[in-house]
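ERR on first pass: missing label on line 2. Operator R.T. fixed the label and resubmitted. Corrected input:
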Amino acid sequence: MDFSTLIQILDSTLRMATPLLLACLAGLFSERSGIFDIGLEAKMLISAFFSAAVAYETGSVWLGLLAGIGSSLVFAAIHGVASITFRGNQLISGVALNFLAAGMTVLIAQNWFQQGGRTPSLMGGARFEPLTLPFADSLAAVPIFGPLYAELLSGHSILVYVALLAVPASWWVLFRTRFGLRLRAVGENPAAVDTAGVSVVALRYSAVAIAGLLCGIAGAYMSTGLGAGFVKDMTAGRGYIALAALIFAKWRPWYALSACLLFGLLQALALRTDVVARIFPFEMPVQLLDSLPYILTVVILAGFVGKAIPPRAGGTPYVKER
Amino acid sequence: MDVMPKWADVVLVPLISLLLAFAISALVILGIGKDPVEAVKLMVTGAFGSTYGWGYTLFYATNFIFTGLAFAVASHASLFNIGSEGQATLGGLGVALVCLALPWPHWALALPAAMIGGALFGAAWAFLPAWLQAKRGSHIVITTIMFNFIGAAVLNYMLVNVLRPEGSQDPASANFPPGTNLPTLHEILGVFGIPFSKAAPVNVSFLIALLACVLVWLLIWRTRFGFELRAFGKSESAAVYAGISPARIIIVAMLISGGLSGLMAINNVMGEAERLVLNSVEGAGFIGIAVALMGRNHPVGVALAALLFGFLYQGGAELALWMSIPRELIVVIQGLVILFTGALDNMVRMPIEKLFLAMRRSAKAGE
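pass 2 clean. output:
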């Protein structure tokens, strides 16, 4: 494999990893506060649709992004009401939202655009254009470093950089602020947080809202950055891969980055079967490549390679004593 | 202390939740500019207005009974088996391998063998998550989700590389030999001289699904294992104190659950398609969750809820055909039903409990 192919694969890895990373961080906030979220997929999907639809109608990708985030927040609010206020089963709520998003997006898309459950293709200002980082052109000629900078790092849409910056930001919020300390505490021992006079409900709602925001960005990136418009079921299980990455990362932001890059690499390789055929001496079935994230996650969960310990209060609604 | 009488818990709360879900579904139909009343009429006549409609409704219901029972059995042990989809996928593979292995002379021989094949493959697919939960404490929800995806990849690989007949581009197995074709309800009822639509896919598997309901009821409420299962589900520590082995319960419960999911394949793979295709489960594994939730994990409830979802599926197909409402409307209704009967259960339950408390208090005051 030559250098330029490698750059291409890594470039594609970065793009594939971006929605995973955003959704993974979303799950991180939610689960750290003790709310399981298997509805990451739903929030990404609904946001992917609304950002594409609004971007198409208005011609402004930024308005699209806002609409996407808004719709994702609505779904997050439903999840919050069900699992925090009414203390329902968080898994069931997630399953329900996944169905709701899968159905609603197609239903509305068909109603608005009559194109079989998709939005028209987005063009011009309705998409996120690639950004050229400073000096990318002048540095491109430098050997090794030049292509790495100009082709791998530069030339992505702004949301890719937002996702990358979200990693240190999440780390800082969770581990260096008072809010983060409380958020982590509420996922481990909500009774203690309550005793200290901090509202468990408010903390969990804010965690769920942050998850909604991040999933909203992830979905908008899918339809206006990575793709050019919404198509039915376009998230294709990425919410679940993000969940897998979250376990792989043991609920830590920096590990989440590496896990998502790894899973992104697998997705990028699955798109380039010619490269895969050259790397592996035996015939690598593409299905194995597709399911590798899931297999790796099961191995991690089995605890044979390091142990993944989830937040202790995850999945249990908090009942305040009377 | 039970605040509510049992009928309120079993009938009233799910009914109100269901009505709420349907009310919002009606708003959705209004929102896309169609008439909900007309839609409901069309759904009811489409699903129950003819033996053809009934035939499809019962066919879908058969799938949902199997996956609903699967979820219910695991639920009684407090296990959330979200992996029915994968287990039913693998069950399809098991059924297909059995059907294609021999030139079966008669369906009466092929069916028991296919049932064993489907149940074994389904159970096998549930075994590893169960074992990991029992021995390594890996969260069964996540492992079964992962196994759904791995199962889809396994099926894809098998269809593309192993089962696909030579010269075919389609990722599907060869057609099963005629000796494996199951009798449809048209043929069964024909023996008694009762006319029934010939085109509908409902077949003898429906009767097996009903039998499975009875067997599951016996298992859970009339056997020693069932008692241990429920005891473990209510309180793990109490069960351990009573000498019940958690690992055994978890693994056996999941094997039964996976086996029931796998059995679904005799209906959709062997009974209808008569060959194995990609994505033959079509989400029935997830609908099993809704069915079990609505049915309060009781086989009678599961059968009724399965019928309801069979109606939604068949009625929804008619909507797509005649009112040009996309089939995805069913997915929305499904999501709303799960949301209201499952996740928002307390929203309905709390006010009703308050109502009953108030009634009891005023009754006491009146004495």
